[in-house]
Amino acid sequence: xxxxxxxxxxxxxxxxxxxxxxFKRLRDEMLFPSVMALSAQIRRDVEAAxxxxxxxxxxxxxxxxxPVSERT
Length: 72
Prior knowledge:
The protein is an all-alpha fold. The chain has 1 helix and no strands.
């Protein structure tokens, strides 16, 4: 099972076909003792993903590659 979160996206794509590209697994599936613990983990996951893509963009920019956000 894959759960995804699209950062900074506000369009309505319900019923539309989308493609999902996997770059990195953040963590294994976990059970949480409370909604608060789940919420805290989601915040950590978002921060880890943003940092990963930030580093990836910097690396690609220095190598002259097409940025992740412009790939189709």
